[in-house]
Amino acid sequence: MNAATDVLPGEQDFHRLERTWRDPNSLVGWLSHVDHKSLGRRYLVTAFGFFLLAGVLAALMRLQLSRPDNSFLGPDLYNQIFTTHGTTMMFLFAVPVMQGLGIYFVPLMVGARAIAFPRLVAFSYWMFLFGGIFLYVSFLLNAGPDVGWFSYPPLAETLYSPTKRADVWAQLITFTEVASLAVAVSLITTAFKLRAPGMTLNRVPVFVWAQVVTSFMVLFAMPAVMVASTALILDRLVSTHFFDVEQRGDALLFQHLFWFFGHPEVYIIFIPGAGLVSTLVSTFSRRPVFGYLGVVLSLVATAFMGFGLWVHHMFATGIPQLGRSFFTAASIIIALPTGIQFFCWIATMWSGRVVLKTPMLWILGFFTIFLIGGLTGVILAAVPVNIQVHDTFFVVAHFHYVLIGGAVFPLFAAVYYWFPKITGRLLSERAAQIVFGLMFTGFNVTFFPMHILGLHGMPRRIYTYPAAMGWGSLNLLASAGAVLMTLGVMLFLIDVVRALRSSQEAPDNPWDASTLEWATSSPPPHSNFLRPPTVAGRDPLWENPPDQPVVVGLRTDVRDVLVTHVLDAEPDHRSEFPAPSIWPLITALATTALFIGSIFTPWAVVWGAIPVFIATIGWFWPKRPDEGGTQPWPSRRTLPHPNEAPAAGGTI
Amino acid sequence: MLWTTTIVGLVVLAFVVVAILHSRRHAPAATHSTSERSLARSVYAATGVSVLILAVLLIASIRVGGGVEHLEAASALTIKIVGHQWWWEIEYEDAVPNQRVLTANEIHVPVGRPVVVKVTSRDVIHSFWVPNLQGKRDLIPGYTTAIWLQADRPGVFRGQCAEFCGLQHAHMALDVVAEPGQDFDRWLAGMRKPAPSPQTDEERRGHDVFMSRRCAGCHAVNGTEAFGQMGPDLTHIASRSTIGAGALPNTREHMGEWVKNPQVSKPGNQMPPNPLSDEDMRALLVYLELLK
Prior knowledge:
The structure holds 2 protein chains of 2 kinds. By secondary structure, chain A is mainly α. Helices cover 62% and strands 2% of the residues of chain A. The termini of chain A are close together. Chain B starts with a helix and ends with a helix. In chain B, the strands form 4 sheets. Chain B has a 5-stranded mixed sheet. Chain B has a 3-stranded mixed sheet with strand order 4-10-9, covered by helices on one side. In chain B, helix 4 packs across helix 7 (278-290) and helix 6 crosses helix 7 (278-290). The model of chain B has no long low-confidence stretch (mean pLDDT 90). The chains are: A mainly alpha, B alpha+beta. At the A-B interface, helix 4, helix 8, helix 10, helix 11 and helix 12 of A face helix 1 and helix 2 of B.
C-alpha cells in the first residue's frame, strides 16, 4: 500500500519479480517445487489419476455383479477390489482433489502471492503420492486391503486377517491424514493471514470460506481416525488389545472412533462442493450470491452438526433407543443448512440472468442428483427405515448420489470453469455437452436401480448372489450405466488432451466472473499477481472502481509476501517466503520408509525416526540473512550483496 | 416418508427450473432492494416449511421406532443366535438343560407369537437380518443384545448376513420358517430327540465313516459320540433346506459335492475337502439323510 518509491515499476522489475518466484525446472528443481500452482496442479492430476484407477475397480465390480452366480472375480479379489475402491475414492481422490483446488485457488482468490507454509504443502503432496503408490503396489502384489474401507475389528485383527493387507489399509490412512492435516493448516493460514488489503472477513469468497470450514473439520475429524487406525496397527503389531474382545478390548470402540471421523468426512467432501456451487451459480447468474451471510453460516452450521451424527452409521449395533433418537434428530436437522443453501441458490438464479454455459450444466446435474441423495439421507435418518436398508444397496445408491452429486459433479463444473485459468486453454463446449449427457445419464442408470435393489434386500459387499433372488436384471441395468459413465470419462480425457495441444489461448476472464483469480493472466504468472490487488467489495471484479489501488512496496529479489490482519485484512507486515527446497521430498521419503517399515517391525518406528529427524533438520536449517533466510521485521536486509547490481534489491 | 421426500424433491427441482426460466425472461436486473427483500421473505418461508416437514418426520420416526422396538410379551419364545464365519448357530433356550435345542442356519418360529432373538458372535461382527420380519441387529463379539420379531403369516423368509464378515460374507444366509403353533411345537419336539441310530448296513457304514473320519471332529450329532463344536450341529441336517448357510440346496447330489470339496461352491470356508472312496461317500450320504 505504501508506495516505497515514486517510480512506477517497469518491465525490468516484473522480470526480476518473475525470476524470483519461478521454481527451477531441472530434475532436482522440479522435485523441489514450492509454488502453490505447481503443487495444486500436481494434486489435481494425481487425485484424478486415482479417480481413474478407482473407476477401473468399480467397472470390475459392476462386471462381476452384472449377472447372478458370476465367477468372473472370486471373493478374495472382489473383497480387495471393493476395499481399495472405497479407500481410494475417500482418501486418495475426494479429499485430496478438493484440497488440490484449495491449494491452487485459495491464494489466488484472496489475492496472495503464495500459499502459507509452501514447503509443508510440498511435503503433503509427496506423502499423498507415496501413500497412493504404496496402496496400489500392495494391491498389485496381492496385498491390497480386503476388510472394507472401514476395517472393523475383529475382522481386521491378526486372528482373522493374518496377512499384511489390513496393515496396508491402516498405514495408508496415516499417509493421507498426515498430508491432509498439513494442507488444512496451510489453507486456514492462507485464508486468515494472506488476504488482499480490503478483503475483510465478510468479503471472503464463498469458496474460500468453504475451504476454511473444511480445513477446520479436517483438523478435528482426522485425529479420530488416526487414533483408530494407529490403535488397530498397534493391536496387530505389538498386541495392544485395544479392540481384542478375548483380552477385554472392545470391538465397538473402533466404530465410534472411525465414524466420529467418517461422518464429518462426508461433509469434508461435500462442503467444498457446496462452495463451488455458490461460486458458479453467482458467476453464471451474473449477480452476487443471494444471502451471502446465510450461505456462509450454513456451511459453518453443517460443519458443527456434522460431528453430531456419527451414530447413525451404528443404529444396528444395539444402541439404546433414547441415544438413537438424538442422532436421528441431528441427522434430520442437518438437512436444514443445506436446504437454506438450496433456497439461496434458487433465489440467486431467480433474480439473476442465468447463462447456461458448460460449468452451469454440471451445476444443474448437481441440483438433481444431490437433491435425491439428500432426501434419501433424510429417509435414512429414521431408525425404523435405517435398520432395514442399512448396509444394503439402498445405502450404496444414497451415498453415491450424495458424493458424486455433491462433489464430483461440482468438481467437473469446476474443472470446466477453471481449466482456462490453470492451462490457458479452453475445453470444447460441444464435447462438454456430450460428456455431461453421458455422465448424467450413466450415473442415474447405474445408481438409481440400486435404491430398488436395496429395498429388495440386496446387501452390500457381496461378491455374488443367487439367481433365485431376482436381482439379476436391475444389476445388469446398473452395469450398463457404468459403460456410459466410462465413455463419458474417456471423451473428457480426449478433450483435455486436445485442448492442451491446441494453440487457441483462453482469455483472462472468459466467464466474466467476479473473484480475484480472474484478475490475473491465464495461466497466472509465477508471482500470481504482478501487482497484488486490493479489494473494495465481495465481488472485486464487478465492484472495484477503475482506480482501485494495488499493493506496492514488496521486494522483487526475495519472495516477499504481504501478511494482513485476520478480521479486517489491514496490512500487518511483510514476510519472506521460503525458496524451493528438496528437503520436503527427502523428509517425505524418510517418513514413507518409517511408515511402511512399521508394518513389518515395531523397530522401524525407532530406527526410521532417525532419517526423518535428519531430514527435518535439513529442512529447517537456519540461513543467514544474505542467503534469504527469515529476517526480523522491519529491519530487513538493506545492503545489497557486494557482487550484485545495486538495483537487485528493488521493490514493486 | 417416501412420498413426502419425493414431493419435496420435485417441488425444489421445479423451483430450480422456474428460476432459470424466470431469470432468462427478465432483463439483467440491477438488483433492486425491494426484490431482494421479497426474495429474502421467500427464503425465510421455504426455510420455515422445511423446519415443519423435518419436525413431522422426526416425530413420526421416533413414534414408529418405539413401535417396532417394543413387543414384550410374557409368552415370548427365546432364540439365541451366535454368528460364526460363515454360518449361524441357533439355540432354543429352555430352563431344563436337556430341553434345549441346538441347530444351525434355519429358524422355526410360531406364527403370531412374539420371539426374542438374543444375538452375539464368536468371531467377527455379523448382522442378523430377515427383511420381511425385522430390521438388522449386529452380532458383536463381547456384546449380547436382543431384538423382537413376530411373524404374522406362515411362510419361509430368507435372511442374510448384512455386516461384511470376510471372504464368504455373500454366502451366509438363513431361513426363517414361520408355521402355525401346533406345527411349530411338533417341530420343536422332533428337534429335541437325538439322532436315530443306523439300521441298515449302509447306514451303519455311513455312521462309521462319519465317526472315524474328520466329520465328528467339527460337527456334533446328538445321541452319538460326535461332539465337535467348530461346525454346525448336524443332528437334524436332513430336515434343513440348504447346505453351507445357503450355499447349495440340500439334495443328495449337492451334499456329495459339498462333502467332497466344500471349497468349490464356498471358497475359503473352514471345512476342508474330504477325499472319500465312492462307497464311503454313498454310505455317508445315506447316513446323513437319516438325520431328519
